[in-house]
């Protein structure tokens, strides 16, 4: 099953293909859900592409424009925010994706 997932992500094996995999390590899962077999998926992907582990913890907490810490939010439902330091208006997911690059 994991080989099938890896083949869907990287249909043609090629070492020049780069795949980033988050280093999620919460043993209890997210919101009481089971943790997916990330190590197994990363291993299968590494047979088809170059895999790099990414620490995604601060990706939505640092401003990509000025690198300042963003204000803490009480809820994960906040999708947009304005950085008080540089006054940039960000989509939370876009900011996180840019921080991964």
Automatic annotation (TrEMBL):
Please name the GO terms that the record assigns under molecular function: DNA binding
Coiled-coil annotated residue ranges, if any: none
The alphabetical list of record keywords is: DNA-binding
Among InterPro entries, the record links this protein to: Cas12f1-like_TNB
Q: Which residues form the Cas12f1-like TNB domain?
A: 48-100
The question of whether Manganese is a record keyword is answered with no
Top-level taxonomic group = Eukaryota
The protein's name is Cas12f1-like TNB domain-containing protein
Give the organism the record lists. Phytophthora sojae (strain P6497)
């Amino acid at each position: 099953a994991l080989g099938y997932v890896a083949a869907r992500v990287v249909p043609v094996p090629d070492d020049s293909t780069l795949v980033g995999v988050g280093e999620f390590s919460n043993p209890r899962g997210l919101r009481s859900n089971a943790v997916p077999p990330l190590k197994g998926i990363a291993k299968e992907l590494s047979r088809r592409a170059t895999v790099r582990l990414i620490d995604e913890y601060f990706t939505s907490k640092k401003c990509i424009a000025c690198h300042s810490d963003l204000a803490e939010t009480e809820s994960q439902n906040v999708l947009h925010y304005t950085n008080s330091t540089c006054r940039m208006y960000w989509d939370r997911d876009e900011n996180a994706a840019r921080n991964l690059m």
